[in-house]
Amino acid sequence: MGGLLHTIQFVFGILGNAATLFLFLVPTLTFKTIIKNKATEQFSGIPYVMTFLNCLLSAWYGLPFITSGNILVATINGAGAAIELVYLLIFFLYTPNKQKGKILAMFVLVILAFAGAAVISVLAFHGKNRKLFCGTAATIFSIVMYGSPLSIIRLVIRTKSVEYMPFFLSFAVVISCSCWFIYAMLGMDPFIGISTGVGLGLGIVQLILYFIYCDKKVLNKTSADVPLEMGKDHCNNVKCCHDEKQSSFHNQLNHELV
């Protein structure tokens, strides 16, 4: 029975890796725009710095001498840290000179914070206490990362519009967090379970809001149009929703999550 549970957990870990990798790669569209325009424009580098720190802490937590059986957590977050580092290098290259110092200072602080946490965990803690220390640190920053869409949720409720909350990004968050939450429950890991449980709850809220306000927006736009025949009117509605998603996707990329 234990072998079956371990196999099921491993499968959900693989699925979680795939979904989380997709989330890490979503900002490539943003950075494609930055490279094309040779400017970071209104984008902020802070989310990428914080995600980089979260990936480092989570990857450290997944290493065998911290926790056992969490190598999939270490691999995906290690890959995420490498991806975020590339994003930060590109952002630093194209950000205005007055912002370079701020980004560089935050990056140095993140490296020092992670190095300090890693050294303390190895020298000052052992066994369960080491797992508790590293797990707590990783959980806190994971919750901060997953909680970043709260501002978008407030915006959606206030404006009754999903313009800045694309469906597929929210859907991917739900899939990723669902896989990791099940993985955590099967492995009896409260640290991964708490952070991904929070992310799953927020992702579900985003999907509910999307279906509530997307329909209303399409309906309002339809009522404002000049009545057309059914076929043409239906095409306009589909195009309206598609254009809305496309225009919003670029703006939401700066508020990512996995």
From TrEMBL:
Membrane topology category: Multi-pass membrane protein
Any one annotated GO CC term: plasma membrane
InterPro entries for the chain: SWEET, SWEET_rpt
Pfam families referenced in this protein's UniProt entry, alphabetically: MtN3_slv (PF03083)
Statement: the UniProt record of this protein carries the keyword Repeat: yes
GO molecular function, one term: sugar transmembrane transporter activity
Positions of transmembrane segments: 6-31, 43-63, 69-94, 103-125, 137-157, 164-186, 192-213
The family this protein is said to belong to: Belongs to the SWEET sugar transporter family.
Function: Mediates both low-affinity uptake and efflux of sugar across the membrane.
Protein name: Bidirectional sugar transporter SWEET
